[in-house]
Amino acid sequence: MKNSYTVFGLLIYSAIMVFVISCGGDEDDASFINAYPPDNSTDGGVTNRTPTTDPSEPIVDATAEPIDFEAEKSEIQQVYSAFYSAFNSRKLVDIQNLWKEHPDHAQFRVAWVTGGFVEPVGPTAGWPQIESTIVSLWFAQDTARHNWTGSNRFSQFWIRRAKSDPNTLEASARASASYRTQSSGITYAYLIKNEHEDWQLQQIDSVTGHVVDMGHGDPEISKYFTDESAKVP
Questions:
Q1: Is the pLDDT of residue 199 over 90?
Q2: Alpha-carbon span 96 to 103, nearest angstrom
Q3: Which helix (H) or strand (E) holds 190?
Q4: For 43, what's the count of Cα atoms within 13 Å in the CB-facing half-sphere?
Q5: Is 220 or 35 the better-scoring residue by pLDDT?
Q6: Does residue 211 carry a pLDDT above 50?
Q7: Could you tell me if residue 220 is inside a domain?
Q8: How confident is the model at residue 56 (pLDDT cuts 50, 70, 90)?
């Protein structure tokens, strides 16, 4: 009888241990699953992650057509030649048409040397102010005889897509030319071309050769750029 009680006790003890171990195993499995959740990706165990976008990076349209630099240069040359001719022919309406699509950001500046000092006019902003400045230059006592001199063609170009809108092209260009009859100097220009539009002159800046010689020949128009990546051969 004593042996029967002993066997019965062992059976009960074994059952209790099996129950305890099985419960502890469930908790351990749950802890393991929580600590190391299963990978539900379908790429062989590499978790799929949504790529992050740096807001400071410019917007790039991968579908944008390549820039035809030769065609764009030809159109830009036409705009500058039209300005050169209209200015020297005193045709204000023709000059205004070159700014007609984007008058709010228009800028105009000319600088020359008088009496050993740099004499700047501008940068003047906005078409109404530019119109007044040009008319004053044409008819003022000291400047009425002067024209845009030097080359009516640009010699250097920088063209790129605008960072804020890939459908907009912007360009900087320069020519060996200036306002007033001194050494040729430099003409700087900034132009813009929106989709389905022609190139429009936005800003133009002239410094005579004497201004350049005095170390004041840098452009003062606000949008002029010369990024190496945008340089056109």
A1: yes
A2: 9
A3: strand 186-193
A4: 4
A5: 220
A6: yes
A7: yes
A8: very low
122: left (phi over 0), alpha (psi -120 to 50) or beta: left
Q: Is residue 193 part of a domain?
A: yes
Q: What is the pLDDT of residue 74?
A: 97
Per-residue tokens: 177: 């030319």
Q: Which two tokens stand for residue 17?
A: 């241990």
Q: Could you identify the residue written with the tokens 């990076």?
A: 57
Q: What's the rounded mean pLDDT across residues 9-16?
A: 46
The answer to the question of residue 58 being in a domain is no
Radius of gyration of the chain (CA): 37
d(CA 175, CA 178): 8
Q: Which two tokens stand for residue 221?
A: 């128009």
- Length of the chain in residues, anyone? 233
Which residues, including other chains, have CB under 8 Å from residue 58's CB and lie 6 or more apart? 163, 164
Which tokens sit at 107? Answer: 């800028």
* CA dist list (Å): 19 to 29, 55, 102: 16, 57, 83
| Six-digit token string for 226 | 């010369």
For the chain, the domain total comes to 2
Q: 131 lies in a domain? A: yes
Range of the domain at 5: 1-49
Same domain, 207 and 103: yes
Same domain (yes/no): 26, 113: no
The residue among 216, 223, 129 whose CA lies nearest residue 173 is: 223
On whether both 30 and 81 belong to a single domain, the answer is: no
Cross-strand partners of 155: none
Q: How far apart are CA 138 and CA 192, in angstroms?
A: 27
